[in-house]
């Protein structure tokens, strides 16, 4: 409740005094702040009541990393980039707020800034945990694909015969594909568990991101239309705002493509196994049975990420959301143009 009160205090302060906005902008700011608080509280409540599930999930991710420490090579860069962008974006936001509020700084304003920092840090921790888990799973998928590619390269030159060397090689390759099939099945179950566990938080974060992006587009238009808003801002504030938006959108891009790359890794596996039809006939029966079972299992259990069963996360869904976001941003701008034509600061 203290954080909520400080957040609303900060919003009223920004609305009434700092930006001197019209009534529509003030209402929009308050709505965005209220929805953000509700989403964060729902996310925290979900994590609290599902503590055993989260601990089990995190232990599973940690065991996956401990058994395959080499997967860090395939996800280290994305995790480091994510942390750098998130931290830089939040630090720039706090610095900008402090600079703008320097002449009005008081205990209540300082407390509000601290609460804003706590709020955004909580959101970033939730997102970063999900990001790291997806990145580790993606790294393991990449490693499996590398092993499958190597095993397929060993199968192609094989000449079917009944020699002991041929049979031994086929048995060894069958063992490899069995291990890869079990690993893939485990990864898919782990991903589905991760999606179910984070489903409420994902939908809350989606709402927050949606409102933030629509609000950013509208307020950038407002700054252009009501140029006196930024008259008293120090020059460094505008530079900091541009940098903040740059890192913020880069962070969003990393979050989105982290999921896309995981989906791509799965379909790369399906594509690799489709080379099964190019093998020479007459391979060992066990090897053929293992490959057929692996391919059939992938076909029967397609890899997909759903959010509460409402929509599937993929590039087409992202395009639809971007289109909807653009439409709502234009509607906000049109409303401002129609109802505040003669509004002056």
Give the structure's gist in a few sentences.
By secondary structure, the protein is mostly helical.
Q: How many separate structural domains?
A: 1
Low-confidence residue ranges: 1-5
Main pleated sheet: 2 strands, antiparallel
User: Strand order within the widest sheet?
Assistant: 1-2
How far the N terminus sits from the C terminus, by CA atoms, comes to: 34 Å
Total of helices: 10
Overall average pLDDT = 80
Instruction: Write down how many β-strands occur, each being a DSSP E stretch of 2 or more residues.
Output: 2
Structural class: mainly alpha
Helix content: over 70%
The proportion of strand residues reads under 5%
| Integer-rounded radius of gyration | 26 Å
Order of helices and strands: HHHHHHHHHEEH
Principal-axes geometry comes out as elongated
Describe this structure as you would to a colleague:
This protein is mainly alpha-helical and 345 residues long. Helix 3 crosses helix 5 (107-155) and helix 7 packs parallel to helix 10. It is 81% helix and 1% strand. A two-stranded antiparallel ribbon has the order 1-2. The chain has one domain.
Keywords:
345 residues, mainly alpha, two-stranded antiparallel ribbon
List the helices and strands and how they pair.
Elements: H1 2-18, H2 23-49, H3 51-67, H4 72-100, H5 107-155, H6 164-197, H7 199-225, H8 235-273, H9 285-300, E1 306-307, E2 311-312, H10 315-339
Antiparallel strand pairs: 1-2
């Amino acid at each position: 409740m203290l954080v909520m009160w400080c957040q609303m205090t900060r919003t009223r302060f920004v609305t009434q005094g700092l930006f001197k906005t019209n009534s529509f902008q003030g209402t929009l700011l308050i709505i965005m702040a209220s929805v953000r608080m509700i989403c964060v509280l729902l996310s925290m409540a979900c994590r609290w009541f599902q503590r055993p599930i989260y601990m089990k999930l995190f232990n599973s991710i940690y065991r996956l990393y401990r058994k395959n420490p080499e997967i860090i090579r395939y996800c280290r860069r994305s995790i480091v980039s994510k942390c750098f962008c998130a931290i830089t974006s939040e630090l720039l936001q706090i610095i900008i707020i402090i600079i703008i509020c320097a002449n009005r700084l008081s205990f209540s304003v300082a407390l509000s800034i601290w609460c804003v920092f706590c709020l955004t840090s909580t959101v970033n921790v939730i997102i970063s945990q999900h990001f790291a888990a997806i990145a580790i799973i993606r790294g393991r998928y990449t490693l499996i694909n590398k092993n499958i590619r190597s095993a397929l390269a060993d199968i192609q030159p094989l000449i079917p015969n009944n020699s002991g060397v041929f049979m031994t090689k086929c048995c060894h390759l069958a063992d490899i594909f069995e291990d890869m099939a079990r690993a893939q099945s485990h990864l898919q179950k782990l991903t589905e568990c991760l999606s179910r566990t984070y489903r409420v938080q994902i939908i809350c974060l989606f709402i927050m991101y949606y409102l933030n992006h629509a609000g950013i587009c509208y307020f950038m238009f407002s700054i252009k239309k009501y140029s006196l808003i930024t008259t008293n801002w120090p020059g460094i504030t505008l530079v900091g705002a541009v940098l903040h938006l740059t890192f913020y959108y880069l962070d969003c891009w990393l979050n989105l493509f982290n999921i896309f790359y995981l989906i791509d890794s799965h379909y790369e596996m399906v594509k690799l196994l489709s080379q099964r039809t190019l093998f020479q006939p007459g391979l060992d029966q066990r090897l053929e049975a293992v490959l057929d079972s692996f391919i059939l299992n992938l076909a029967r259990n397609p890899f997909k990420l759903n959010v509460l069963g409402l929509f599937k996360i993929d590039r087409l869904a992202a395009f639809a959301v971007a289109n909807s976001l653009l439409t709502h941003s234009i509607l906000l701008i049109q409303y401002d143009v129609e109802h505040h034509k003669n509004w002056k600061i």
